[in-house]
Amino acid sequence: MSKDEALTADEIALYDRQIRLWGMATQLRLRSAKVLIVNVGGVGTEIVKNLVLGGLNSIELLDSSVVKEEDFAAQFFLPNDDSIIGQPKLPIIVEKIKELNNRVKLNINTTPLESIFEDPSYFKQFDLIIATELNRSQLFALNQHTRALSIPLYATGLHGLFGYIITDLIEHYSTPQKEAGNQLREPNTKINRSKTITKVDFDKGSNTETLTILDEFVPIPQIFKSKELPNQLNKRQLKRLSASFPLIFSLFEFEKPLNPEDVIDKELLRAKGIQLCEQYGIPTASITEEYLDMFSNQAFTEYSPVAAVLGGTLAQDVIQFLSKKESPINNVLILDSVKSEMPIYLL
Amino acid sequence: MAKDTYLKKILGNDRYSRVRQTKILMVGAGGIGCELLKDLVLTGYGEIHIVDLDTITLSNLNRQFLFRHHDIDKSKSLTVAKAVDSFNYFDTKLVPHHGNIMDAKQFPITWWSQFSYIFNALDNLEARRYVNRMCLYLKTPLMESGTTGFDGQIQPIYPYYSECFDCQSKVTPKTFPVCTIRSTPSQPVHCITWAKEFLFHQLFDEVDSSAGGLNDAAKIKSETDDKDEIENMTKEFNELVDLRKLIFNSDARTFFTELVNKIFKVDVERLLLIETLWKSRQKPVPLIITQYEQDLIRILDDQTELQKIFGDETKVWSTLENLVILFKASESLQRRLQGEESFLSFDKDDEDTLNFVTASANLRSIIFNIEVKSKFDIKQIAGNIIPAIATTNAIISGFSSLSGTNYFKYDFEETQDFSRIYQESSSIFISIKPNKYITSASLVGPNERCPTSSIARGLLKLTPVEVKELSLKWLVDKLIEQYDYADEAVALILGKSRLIYDVDFDDNLEKRLGDLSGFTDGELLMVQDDDGELESIELYISIVEDHESDYLPQIKLGPKKAITEESSNGSSGAPDVATDTIVIDEEDEDLVEVTEPVVKKRKIEVEVL
Ligand SMILES: [Zn+2]
């Protein structure tokens, strides 16, 4: 359905509680959005659930994997049936996902990502791409294509009690409404490296300003070698910085173990973590034994509550992105559920 | 079984095996409940009981992902338990209960005592306060959670170690002066309140003379000295009683015409006569129905036209359209009252009642020159609808289950010493900023002024035989022996306010406990120190076939707290002055942000389903 066609009475009744929050205009924007989700693991399951419920136009799932025993940890669209182990995952779960909301068009594609890369024009059909659980080379390759095609990209992954969201949304305009202060905001004001107020519309009656804000993003490889973090944190924050940030980025250097019982070599992880701290200009002291143990043990594992927090946050940000009301996440969010922290860094 | 390899890695073997063996309770199976149950089942809990009294509606389906269209009108608790079967990979035993958690017959205290942890996923203050109190009686840890729109929070509660649910005051719904509602409305909400709580209520609902406080003589007198205004209100009210009689002995057209004429013309004209009201206000303009009569008759006969009006709930209706809606709604309500139903209560999901309230509120708005609203908007105000989305519920439920499962790090089987886990836990608030998504705050101890946690609580356990045989004197002696009251001076209050014993009133001493009226299972017994030195203890009377040797909780009563006994006895009121000392993890925050979670916390109600 097109953006211009009004919501039907049935749609309004179904989406009542969310329309009351974000309005008809956002609901229409969602209804016209076409999204690709790469890999439907633990966090992918949560994202697809949330976006199907939200009422997007269409979602394509791209995943060539087969069902593994450990997938039963957090991938709740899988039927409780051991005989499906070893079978391609998407055909098994697609009907269960469709049940959530039959207004959303759902396609599945079991082509390996590497084959898709051979003809990247495939990506053109989507307004937005969400990639989950990619390794570094896949992520960089995908980002190269999304950059070339100007398609916003979200990347996310889970490591037990930890997780991340990395965004390259190219650029994004939003028009938040703010109460006007004593001094009116000026157009063409740079708030930070990536955020600019490009326009200010003042409404005297309500004493509000409608701002137009431009958020600019950097390509993902740049995030991996950024020197920006020390500039964004004060001394105290730098001192108590959680090891989850350097260790999550360290894990991009490791492959997911084939056997789910296996752990990541702690000393290799330590060496990599320290190296990354030095590279990012942050204290190596954050790499504690406790965190090394947790990360070597929990790397690439899936846990439903953490998948729910991360998948909820990502889906919410996608809705935010599409609604154009506020700025989306720019450009790294770390979830540390041991410290109950979700910092966002602009790298 | 390798399906749980990840769980073992993440939780560790000890915690995982405790989780596997434990029995927990989840109260509420709505927006948070659906998400939370998924997380708890996938954490591998041994046994989960689920309580909810609600049934499923269409507007649940945008977020309560365990429900389908064909589940509408079915029980939420029974449906969720069945729905998670498809991913119950770790063989959790699911025990759903369809019922009201506050029903002490269905859920006696002995039932509550089987759970080692309780998760609240509730949408209303009354039930949350009730669960909170049960947890205080039993010293069961509780995870409290709530969401509204993009906001949400969790609060772990370790009874008597951390703040309880009542320790911070909650926002109560805004009320308006009677005069504003009845005589001088100036906002849409005033007209909606009038339409729902006064007009609709008086015409169709169960008769009670109070009219929800909107005809309360004392309240009106406290607001205005204007004799004319007061007299007018009484007259208006009495005529409404006459109008109600018309429902039963007139046809639809007569009833409608009389209704519109009285409410939107005569009453308004009389108000205009009270000149003092309009000195600094814009005068209302009475509605003259004859102007609209012809068009009204034409549209009422035109099905396509009618469908068009009724079909668009987001449009702001004209005067004529509101009259059409009002006619159809009052006709339908009249027919229902003439039929099976003896009274009708306002329900946002009952189309007739919502249409009546929408149209009459709008007509009043037109008369008083107030902005007219769409049915969609009026439904939200009249029905107290709180926006709710899947993502916020997913995030908050994720934190709720994470933090709840953290409790099983330690073995609490023998002790209820929460000092360590309390230090390690925090409240979490969604708080979306450019540099972070959530804020967490360390827990603090109970608020001294909290009416709920400033008194001690526990169970008084007796067998039916003991209730029959033991005297009140036995109980008084037992209490004095157990808690060391100086001068043996105690006062016992049974239920809400019945004094059954103090030093000057010993008439009941020789009576058997069972002969004291109200001394029954589930009733409360408040024991106060007449010397005012020791804190009060509220005992929950639990009558069971057999109990371990203890009759009374083995605790030491502390000194009396500042709060007065009157306000604490049986009431669930929150302190009027909040001593909000949410401690933000000190090093993380700058001063500006410290105040924010407190405001949030107060603001947060839970989602209404
Ligand atoms: Zn309290």
From TrEMBL, chain A:
Similarity comment: Belongs to the ubiquitin-activating E1 family.
- Protein's name in the database: Ubiquitin-like 1-activating enzyme E1A
> Which keywords does the record carry?
Cytoplasm, Nucleus, Ubl conjugation pathway
Gene Ontology BP, a term = mitotic chromosome condensation
**GO CC term (a single one):** cytosol
Entry superkingdom: Eukaryota
Instruction: Tell me where in this chain the THIF-type NAD/FAD binding fold domain is found.
Output: 15-342
Q: Which InterPro entries match?
A: ThiF/MoeB/HesA, ThiF_NAD_FAD-bd, Ubiquitin-activating_enz, UBQ/SUMO-activ_enz_E1-like
Q: Which Pfam families match?
A: ThiF
Q: Oxidoreductase: is it a keyword of this entry?
A: no
Q: Which organism is it from?
A: Suhomyces tanzawaensis NRRL Y-17324
Q: What GO molecular function annotations does the UniProt record carry, in alphabetical order?
A: SUMO activating enzyme activity
Organismal lineage: Eukaryota, Fungi, Dikarya, Ascomycota, Saccharomycotina
**Pathway where this protein functions:** Protein modification; protein sumoylation
Subcellular localization, as worded in the UniProt entry: Cytoplasm; Nucleus
Q: Which PANTHER family match?
A: SUMO-ACTIVATING ENZYME SUBUNIT 1, UBIQUITIN-ACTIVATING ENZYME E1
UniProtKB/TrEMBL annotation, chain B:
Q: Which Pfam families match?
A: ThiF (PF00899)
The source's domain of life comes to Eukaryota
Q: Where does Zn(2+) bind?
A: C164, C167, C450
Q: Does the keyword Transmembrane apply?
A: no
What is the protein's name according to its record? Ubiquitin-activating enzyme E1-like
Q: Mention one GO molecular function.
A: ATP binding
Which family is this sequence assigned to? Belongs to the ubiquitin-activating E1 family.
Write down the SUPFAM superfamilies for this protein, in alphabetical order.
Activating enzymes of the ubiquitin-like proteins
The catalytic residues are: C179 (glycyl thioester intermediate)
Task: Please state every residue range assigned to the domain named THIF-type NAD/FAD binding fold.
Answer: 10-402
Q: What is its main location?
A: cytoplasm
Q: Which UniProt keywords apply?
A: ATP-binding, Cytoplasm, Metal-binding, Nucleotide-binding, Ubl conjugation pathway, Zinc
Give the signal peptide, or none.
Answer: none
Residues that bind ATP: 28-33, 52, 60-63, 76, 123-128
An annotated GO cellular component = cytoplasm
User: What does the subunit section of this Swiss-Prot or TrEMBL entry state?
Assistant: Heterodimer.
